[in-house]
Design a protein that fits this description.
Length: 154
């Protein structure tokens, strides 16, 4: 699920317009860490024919992208609980669960920095609604991936 979701949004972390708005956006990217985690575990990334929701070099609707990033970055807060459980399986910040590791400044400050930058983006009401719609779409995508994984027994 993590691999597929972060594949969907990976291009956002290298988008130059978003990078100007959100401090250290490229440094928040976790897709590469997820790929390393899968390699640690000897698991091949799931095959997919579908294009990611956001593609490198293509224009994005900024408010929609902000909504998706809000969900992705917010998930890092809950990752502390997942990392603790992953430890029971022998996984850690250096093996198999890199993408769950906290930022060097800590999860709280990392989140506050992100939300402060997000709050600093000047949006009109219709754009704010697109941020919310983007976040809802991201949550729905994650839920769909989880449901699909349970249906397949993975």
């Amino acid at each position: 699920m993590q691999h597929q979701f972060h594949r969907e949004i990976d291009a956002l972390y290298t988008n130059p317009v978003l990078d100007k708005l959100l401090r250290d956006l490229a440094g928040r990217r976790r897709f590469g860490l997820i790929e390393q985690d899968l390699a640690d575990l000897g698991v091949m990334p799931p095959a997919t024919d579908a294009s990611p929701v956001f593609e490198r070099g293509k224009d994005v609707d900024l408010p929609t992208a902000l909504g998706w990033l809000y969900v992705a970055e917010g998930s890092n807060l809950g990752a502390a609980f997942l990392l603790k459980e992953a430890g029971k399986l022998g996984l850690s910040e250096t093996f198999g669960a890199r993408h769950l590791a906290a930022a060097s400044e800590g999860r709280g400050l990392h989140w506050k920095t992100f939300t402060a930058a997000l709050d600093g983006v000047s949006l009109i009401e219709v754009e704010e609604k697109r941020v919310i719609a983007g976040a809802q779409a991201a949550f729905a995508r994650v839920q769909g991936l989880v449901n699909g994984g349970f249906a397949r027994g993975t």
